[in-house]
User: Fold this.
Amino acid sequence: MSNIFDEIEHTDSSSKIIFKDKKPLDHRFLPDKLVHREEQIRQIAKYWVDALNEVTPSNVTLYGKTGTGKTAASKFAREQLIDAANNKNVFVKVEYIRCTDYTTEYQVIAQLCQKLGRDVPNRGWTKGEIVNTFRDIFKTNAFGKKLILIVILDEIDILLDKDGDGILYTLTRTDNVSVLSISNYLDFKNLIKSRVTSSLNDKEIVFPPYGADQLSDILTERALLAFNDDVLEDDVIPLCSAMAAKEEGDARYALDLLKNAGELAFDEDSVKVTSEHVKMAKDRIEHNKVTEIIQTLPLQQQRLLEAILNLTKNGEEISSGKLYDEYKELSKKDAVTYRRIFDFINELELLGIISTNTISRGRGKGRTNIIKLQCDEDLLETTLFSI
Ligand SMILES: Nc1ncnc2c1ncn2[C@@H]1O[C@H](COP(=O)(O)OP(=O)(O)O)[C@@H](O)[C@H]1O
Ligand SMILES: [Mg+2]
Assistant:
């Protein structure tokens, strides 16, 4: 029997027409140059260069909104330093940890031990045991050379929020270890206690949002690698760039738009990617985002959304009191308290799925919260129904 993948690869000529190689449009792709981030990379390198002279570099913090190139720049600097260290024959390691994958101090330290060749369990040891094992790495060094370790803690806000600042305390108080933290929030230091701020003593590097022209340069570079010649109509990259510039200069969103536009053109067997495809791509991305958010919500919040949906369909104005009644009806025995519902409402509002508006009922009658759905009703219904 013929192989279906072979068949599709060889008969479906449009796939060859649109994309040359889809990998460069993937989030994880690391281009070999990062335009408009030369300055930030140079700053990181200026601190890290100490490692090449066997001096532990300063701790560094990168700040900036989503999609401003923080992860890419840190990985880029990492590759460059590893290259330089190999050439100079110094013993430097740079380990990248994404704190969404390792959410406690124990997990991060265990992961670092494993990456550095120590066989430690993922759970079960006391914190003292794991930390001592980690610190021993820097004492007993078979090579007789001094190991310098740089730890990149990406998305550090999540870890600090869940687990406190113990990880920073431990790392910054281990000889030969330097930390590069990456945060999406300028006020992330509020999550750190002063005992840690003093030992962190970090240098800060800010990643500003990209403007439309900068995004356009980034997309142009990627498009050369990803699309065949003359496939993109002239207005495609400017449109993706303008749309992403509005979304806080997010390069990831810009790349997503371009990739989805290409895929939609491909699905239609079109030989060109047009601005229409970009507009469709925007809708598709929004659709997927809402669906994903709703699917990953805790059950009680999904119920609350269902209650909001029911009231919306009845054309009713939704006050928090009325919403609670409807929610209780749906939840029966395991309903949470009225107080908790306020937290849920806040969270759903932060996610952009609903909005709230406080109105005054007139003198002496107090004020009420009016809740409105901010996403598509049908989309919400099908998503909730599918769960
Ligand atoms: N200056 C740039 N040049 C090329 N690609 C970039 C640049 N900045 C960001 N990107 C790409 O955009 C996407 C998002 O960047 P990322 O580094 O993940 O942002 P952040 O970590 O700040 O959220 C990645 O795919 C990255 O490769
Ligand atoms: Mg990132």
The longest helix spans residues 275-296. Residues 211-292 form a domain with the Helicase, Ruva Protein; domain 3 fold (CATH 1.10.8.60). The chain has three domains: 38-206, 211-292, 297-386. The beta strands are 60-63, 92-98, 148-154, 177-183, 203-206, 318-319, 354-360, 367-373.
